[in-house]
């Protein structure tokens, strides 16, 4: 736990340091660009840093493996830690960029209990009395902020890789990062596709299509890719990477299944978003696919008619929540979460990953899939 807390502190510091170096590049162009840096700081100041932690423990899993040699310890000095801290911080900046874009795509007004990026830009427009639509300005500015953060995540990763002692390991870490970036982008496309294309898809395929979205939009980039990026940077061999992939993918699926439940039933005070937000956004998640399988035709039609209505009242949200619970879909999701966590933990048994790191990964598995509603 102490190492994890130290890593989080180092990642915070590295992000702050990085933004300090980028601020003059932006603000010397024009003081009008100050909000880009201020909002970047705001969106990078919170969060649980799960991706940074998985990246770090992927790296440590190599440092403490039997093949690495007894007593090998990367946790020795800031110089030793510089590559992994920068890689972990780059993942957090990438995540912030994805959230900024995701909120625009989903027309989501809040993020972590505060206004989402495009709403903040809308506010600037409204207070300043500028011409044109404040909604259009907010959306356009939010897209550009997300793009800026994407570029910065690449720059920070490159700084970390340049400090790595093993150039070939750094190249492998870069390849894994590039793959993750592609997968999460196409996964996002699959997500918006399912919100619209479900109507003409065979009923028997909806569960599989929703699961595919989970894998590529979230599971790989939330858990599997950070683990593998960290391990690759430490020089992991193919067997080691295979073990981490086998652990990371089912855990990432369980993580997103939990998040899908929170999107429908979560407490606003915990999630930072209105309860039932995914229902208003029309998310065609695994939860919805499972609910539809068990509902009567009238109940299914009512769910389909209501899902995606941004004007749903609290009472209507409550009716939909009860419909989903009564369908048995929540129990089935809980069973899927449990089975995926079990599969993930089983992948660690007999793997080259040390007992100490296995303990940390097991703790993280419990943390990211914990029931909080």
What string, H for helix and E for strand, traces the elements in order?
A: HHHHEEHHHHHHHHHHHH
Report the end-to-end length measured between terminal Cα atoms: 25 Å
Give average pLDDT, whole number: 93
Please name the fourth-level CATH homologous superfamily: Farnesyl Diphosphate Synthase
CATH topology: Farnesyl Diphosphate Synthase
pLDDT < 50 stretches: 67-75
Q: How many β-strand runs?
A: 2
What structural class results from the helix and strand content? Answer: mainly alpha
Shape: globular
Rg over CA atoms: 21 Å
CATH architecture call:
Orthogonal Bundle
The profile of the biggest β sheet is:
2 strands, antiparallel
Number of domains: 1
Strand sequence of the main sheet, in spatial order?
1-2
The helix tally amounts to 16
CATH class: Mainly Alpha
Q: Classify the helix fraction into a percent range.
A: over 70%
Share in β-strands: under 5%
How would you describe this structure in keywords?
globular; mainly alpha; two-stranded antiparallel ribbon; 373 residues; Farnesyl Diphosphate Synthase
Description of the molecule:
This protein is an all-alpha fold and 373 residues long. The protein has a single domain (2-368), classed as Farnesyl Diphosphate Synthase, CATH 1.10.600.10. The chain has 16 helices and 2 strands. The protein has a two-stranded antiparallel sheet with strand order 1-2. Helix 6 (134-162) runs antiparallel to helix 7. The longest helix is centred in the middle third of the chain and has 31 residues, at 167-197.
